[in-house]
Amino acid sequence: MVEPIRRESPKDLLPKIRRGTTTKSPLTRMRNGLIVLVVVFVVAAVGFRQLGDYEWVTAFWLTAITISSVGFSETTTSSPALQLFTIGVIVFGMSAAAYTFGGFVQMVLEGELEVLLGHRRMTRGIESLNEHVIVCGFGRIGEVLSNDLLRSRRAFVVVDSDVERFEAAKAQGYLCICGDATTDATLIQAGIQRARTLVSSLPSDADNVFITLTARTLCADLQIFSRAEHPTTERKLLQAGASKVIMPAIIGAHQLERLITRPSTAHLIELVSQSHFIDVELDEITLPNQCKLIGLTVSSTEANRKHKLLVVAVNQADGTMIFNPGAEYEFRGGDVAIVMGRNEDIQRFRDAYELAS
Fold it and tell me: Which class for 81: exposed (0-12), middle (13-18), buried (19 or more C-beta within 10 A)?
């Protein structure tokens, strides 16, 4: 019978990551030492209570000063049994305390305390996210996407089950989780109920289908973009709940065709999509029902003359896309205006009509 493959959690892998071994971690050593210390403290207090006929407060006080080696007198009138018991308390109590303190020192020296504190900061950062993007997979596509989201100032969290890729994402300062994105627990930990978008960019079509199905089950109104390597997978992903399926091979082939037949057009698209080369952005502006643009025409906004923007298209509320709208086109509530121009000009246009970024 074949044994099922067990996925190791980040907590299980922590000793391997930091020390390259499976020996007992300092945290385990501290936990075991504290357990022994508590047991010794309780047994000692009961012993002082029974053998010395002390009150409970006095028994706890004697236990504390004995284990801490402070001492309470140089001579004693205690019975031999109580004296032997006290010696035992000193030996076992100080041994447990030294073992526990040694684990703490080891944890500090090996940097594991910093790892634990960093994990807590990471968890708090993820819990504070809202309307964020969940990037499943930190491979070639996931890494480029994360860099672009950072440049666009969009909040996101990376999820990857591979320890090396998880460490790479963490090294770049990203909020990240080392876990299996096909499981409910990992996606819930990534804040899927508060997220706006999930991107499944794993190289395996089967994993992407499973992640899409799991995410759609957990959050019905989530926007899900999924990667597919084979055209036959697109239908399965859409049935699983994907909002849009992206096939890098087909996109790359189209780009190559443009480079061959329309090189200048391909160059323009490349410059616009990679806006860090030039200060030009292709941006979209959502028009709520009560904004100042409602009822105005394209010409009356003076988008081109005053703000130096080109209104490329308008995506209407019913999904109709109008390319190169005429000067007489009147903006309506729910429209999404797609404009092209410099970043500061787009922001100035938003400010002029009180539109959120």
Answer: exposed
What string of DSSP letters covers 121-165? Answer: HHHHHHHT--S-EEEE--SHHHHHHHHHHHHTT--EEEEES-HHH
pLDDT (tens digit per residue) in 173-193: 899 999 999 999 999 999 999
60: in domain: yes
Q: Are residues 141 and 231 both part of a single domain? A: yes
Q: What tokens does 93 get? A: 């109590």
Number of domains in the chain: 3
Rounded to the nearest 5°, which phi and psi values hold at 226?
A: -130, 145
Nearest alpha carbon to residue 285 among 202, 351, 201, 206: 351
Q: 159: domain range?
A: 129-246
Q: pLDDT tens digits for 274-284? A: 655 556 778 88
Q: Global pTM?
A: 0.61
Report the alpha-carbon distance of residue 239 to residue 160 in Å, rounded: 24
